[in-house]
Amino acid sequence: MQDIEFNEIRGSSMQLFPKNRINVPAASRHIEEITIPGRDGVLIKKNKYAATPIPIAFNYIGPADRWSDYWRAAQKWLSANNARLRISDDSDYFYKITYVELSENERNSDRVGNFTATFHTRDGLQYLISGTGEYDIEDVLWNPYEECHPIYKIAAEGVCNLTVNGHVMQANVGQNLTIDTDRMIAYREDGTLQNTSVTGKYEDLYLLEGENS
Predict the structure, then answer these.
(1) Burial category of 117 from C-beta neighbours within 10 Å (exposed 0-12, middle 13-18, buried 19 and up)
(2) What average pLDDT does the structure give for the chain?
(3) What is the per-residue pLDDT across 42-69, written as a single tens digit (0 to 9) for each?
(4) Residue 4: CA count within 13 A, CB half-sphere
(5) Whether 119 contacts 103, CB under 8 Å
(6) Alpha helices by DSSP H, the chain
(7) Which residues touch 105 (CB under 8 Å, ≥6 apart)?
(8) Max CA-CA distance within the chain?
(9) How far apart are CA 206 and CA 107, in angstroms?
(10) Distance of alpha carbon 126 from its chain centroid, rounded?
């Protein structure tokens, strides 16, 4: 039986289980066709990945007098925004979920409830759990996956240059600085924003597929 974990909480802990095996759609890019006068055919431009929904049908069985309690618990659990979704038989990976949309809850009997939760992914991509850990620079120079938006942590004092694949971001570091290229912000360990302490483009700090420097 499959189980899911959403927002760090397992559905099984609330007796909520997928009704059927989960079908996950493939991630897809926004494709733009470009026609050039005088040239046969079209050019294809691949843009960012599209937000892909993952519908999961749930059911639960419990005492008749607690039917609504299960439903309220499900609504609270699935109300989280910008949370992770993990599926039990592929638990090394997670999806970034922006929000969850719920159908009406069908009461087929006094004890049984059925509803569908549609998990709206940010981009349809799977992310490695191991990718959320901290690594030394030499451990991440080879990237066998898609383009990566890393978080850089710098412990230093003064002005430094962070150079990634020939692109430079200058940072004025006061003991510590975190540069989050995905959220495009810079901050100290205590959460204080330091966006004015960096000069350069966050996109230039992405790790490309393959070899990086």
Answers:
(1) buried
(2) 91
(3) 666 666 788 899 999 999 998 989 999 9
(4) 27
(5) no
(6) 67-77
(7) 71, 74, 113, 114, 115
(8) 72
(9) 49
(10) 7
Measure Cα distances from 175 to 3, 158, 179, 188, 190 in Å: 43, 8, 14, 9, 12
- 142: its two tokens: 């080879």
Confidence (pTM): 0.84
What tokens does 32 get? 């733009």
- DSSP designation for 26: P
Enter the tokens of residue 98.
């922006």
Q: Which two tokens stand for residue 48?
A: 């960012």
The percentage of the chain sitting over the pLDDT mark of 90, rounded to a whole number, equals: 77
Q: Decide: 152 and 206 in contact? Cβ < 8 Å.
A: no
What's the token pair of residue 60? 């639960």
